[in-house]
Amino acid sequence: MVRIRGINTVNDNGPLYVIDGVSTRNQDLSSLNPNDIESMQVLKDASSAAIYGAQAANGVILITTKKGKTGKASISLKADWGFSDFAMDYRPTLSGAERREYIYNGMVLGQQRSGKSDADAIAYADKNIDKYAPVPWCGYTDWGDYLFKKGSHSSYEASISGGTDKFKYYSSLSYLNQEGIVKTSGLERITGRLNVDFQATDKLKFGANIMFTNLNQDVYSEGTGYTAPFYSSVSKLTPSDPVYNEDGSYNQDLISLSRRNPVLAQEYNYQREYVTRMFNTINAEYEFIKDLKLKSILSYDYNISKGKEWKDSRTSDGEKNNGGAEKAYSEYNKLVWSNQLTYKTTIQKDHNLDALVGYEIDSKYNDFLSGYATNFLTPIKNDIANGQTLESIDGSSKRSRMVSYITRLNYDYKNKYKAG
After folding, report:
1. 70, 174, 286, 324: most buried by Cβ count inside 10 Å?
2. Which 8-state DSSP code applies to residue 15?
3. CB under 8 Å to 342, separation ≥6 — which residues?
């Protein structure tokens, strides 16, 4: 999550991203290969971001991707492996023995304060301690060992770039596989990119930027649900709760969570997301006279997102409804056509003038559909069509268009005194 100017509204507080001259509100940059980025620039003051109008209210991030350079073809191969873990002990809790002793002492003290003798207070604590802090059959449990793991990642990338005075190219293909520190989290991404520039004549040049991404992700609940790994591990679970019963079945008689065993939920429940994105741009630039240029950009950003969440009937999340499946589908596309006429000149070495007029059409379309079904005959066949009860269905579509007119005039004297 990126914040440049803090929280300005209850809605979208994210900045405007401009990738190779094209604005986009798609804030999930996981579809963009970081190694394809040549540079990033943050525009946070009003004057530098003014050209983007109200869209720049939360700041602007300019992203420029790599381009080819004149010379022989340069081939690059990269491979990377690594591991990840908590930067610090996440909200450390008492060990089982420490917790048992703490509760035991509290019970004794509570009885003494109510007027009981020391012997009666100790007898009370001895009799009741196993209700609140028993020693489990398998020894005290470290739930973190079952809910978390050391994360890992591996990435592979191949790229080629080069060109001549008239034609330059850059192309890359990459693969990323990342396993998170939560056992049910992970990401797999394939990205491809082709950037080309062609100098047709002394006055006319063309360019194209083509990107394709396919992303699959396993996610988990980060909220305060009883089976959410971060919340339950430090707020509800105790070392006195064994994960399994002596017969090997899952323990569903936990001290605070009753039947809600988060390890059982991790075993059978899942939440998955699938994203396919194509972000393609073509541009042309013509120079009428020296420093008077007209540039036209046509861009098409197309996203398909699919998600599925399954709550298994063998877990506390799905047992009441005999299993529940939710499936969602979202299609988003954005077409941008931008035209800008710019002129830069210097008069008598000291007076610098920079003028721009522009026209832009931004057309967006979003289509969304989701459904939720329960009562499955078997958890193995858990596609939403197999649910015997359709609980809900929701959908919406929205189309919008924005037309912008842009003007800018900047003047400076000896690069010291500026007006615009």
Report:
1. 324
2. P
3. 292, 293, 295, 354, 355, 356
pLDDT, tens digit (0-9, with 9 covering 90-100), for 198-215:
999 999 999 999 999 999
DSSP secondary structure letter of residue 104: H
Sheet architecture: strand order including 16-19: 22-24, 16-19, 60-65, 37-43
Phi, psi of 42 (to 5 degrees): -100, 120
Q: How confident is the model at residue 10 (pLDDT cuts 50, 70, 90)?
A: very low
Q: pTM (2 decimals)? A: 0.84
What is the signed CA dihedral for 8, 11, 17, 22, rounded to 10 degrees? -120
DSSP state of 148: B
Element (H, E) at 388: strand 387-413
Q: What is the dihedral of CA 39, 44, 45, 49, to 10 degrees?
A: 60
How far is residue 91 CA from its own chain's centroid?
A: 24
Q: Which residues contact 218 (CB under 8 A, 6 or more apart)?
A: 184, 185, 186, 187, 270, 271, 272
CA distance 308 to 329: 9
HSE at residue 61, side-chain half, CA atoms within 13 A, is 19
User: Closest by alpha carbon to 237, among 110, 125, 320, 136?
Assistant: 136
Q: Are 274 and 216 contacting, i.e. CB atoms less than 8 angstroms apart?
A: yes
